[in-house]
Amino acid sequence: MIEVEDGATPSIRTVTIDRPAARNALTIEALEGLETAIENADESVVSLRGAGPAFCAGADLATVGDLEGDSERAAEFARLGQRVARAIEESPAVVVAEIDGPARGGGLELALACDVRVGTPESTYGEPGVTFGLFGAWGGTVRLPRVIGEGHALEFALSGRTVDAEEALRMGLISRLEDDPRAVVEQIASNADDALTALKRRIRDDRERATQERLEAEAFGTLVETHADDIDSVLE
Questions:
Q1: CB 95 within 8 Å of CB 38
Q2: Backbone angles phi, psi at 180, to 5 degrees
Q3: In what order do the strands lie in the sheet with 45-50?
Q4: Could you tell me the residue ranges of all domains in the chain?
Q5: Model confidence at 35: pLDDT above 80
Q6: pLDDT tens digit string along 171-190?
Q7: Model's pTM, two decimal places?
Q8: For 121-151, how does the pLDDT look when each residue is reduced to its tens digit (9 = 90+)?
Q9: CB 173: neighbour CB atoms within 10 A?
Q10: What is the biggest distance separating any 2 CA atoms in the chain, rounded to whole angstroms?
Q11: What's this protein's family per the entry (predicted)?
Q12: Residue of 48, 57, 52, 28 whose CA lies nearest to 97
């Protein structure tokens, strides 16, 4: 269900959700496989994509159906999805979502945990859970307002509507709109591994400002020392 390709391109691990017949909907097994693929990455960049014509339809509805009448098992399934999203968010690697086709529910929530979201013109986005009495519980209610603002998040989630790539870009749901998202992945991976890691850590840090600024200065000092030759080459 989860295919991992590493080593073909230096510094890039490609993680593919491979259930095209089910629009890459995620079962418990697939979520666990995705978590392992992210946590075992030692490359500086991870590309997350879906096989076939969809990015990810979210939680597998047959799996959700098996949880009916058991609130604790349902909550445990939600916690598993949250854990995978945290693994993406907290990975030392920069995680880029290559979104081609539909990203729905949990699929969109996992994309929201990624550091960069690149959509193609064919990509579409939605949180349809509210239309059948549910909502995204893989950290979506936390990340969605952070990414697009509370007003957009409330309207988008409460309506259950689907937006196209152009509107997603305007809302801030995606970072870039490209015919070939892989080009963005390769552009990011062309930069120094330690600089990428330091930048991600600093931008993701949500502690008080004084701590963030202190750690930012320390990381900058380390990079200046490490990349002295690179700096000299720019100055020449």
A1: yes
A2: -130, 90
A3: 2-9, 12-17, 45-50, 94-99, 116-119, 176-177
A4: 2-188, 205-235
A5: yes
A6: 999 999 999 999 999 999 99
A7: 0.90
A8: 999 999 998 888 888 889 999 999 999 999 9
A9: 25
A10: 69
A11: Belongs to the enoyl-CoA hydratase/isomerase family.
A12: 48
Tokens of 81: 């999805």
Q: For residue range 67-104, what is the model confidence (pLDDT) as tens digits?
A: 888 888 899 999 999 999 999 999 999 999 999 999 99
d(CA 62, CA 192): 43
Q: What is the mean pLDDT of residues 106-117?
A: 97
Higher pLDDT, 208 or 128: 128
Cα angle 35, 40, 41; round to 5: 105
Tokens of 121: 């013109």
Per-residue three-class SS string for 64-106: HHHCCCCHHHHHHHHHHHHHHHHHHHHCCCEEEEEECCEEECH
d(CA 169, CA 166): 5
Higher confidence at residue 209 or residue 49?
A: 49
Contact 118, 175 (CB under 8 A): yes
Reported as type and span, the H/E element at residue 5 is strand 2-9
Taking domain 2-188, whether its CATH number is 3.90.226.10 is answered by yes
Distance separating alpha carbons of residues 44 and 161, to the nearest angstrom:
35
Among 100, 121, 204, which residue's Cα sits nearest to residue 111? Answer: 100
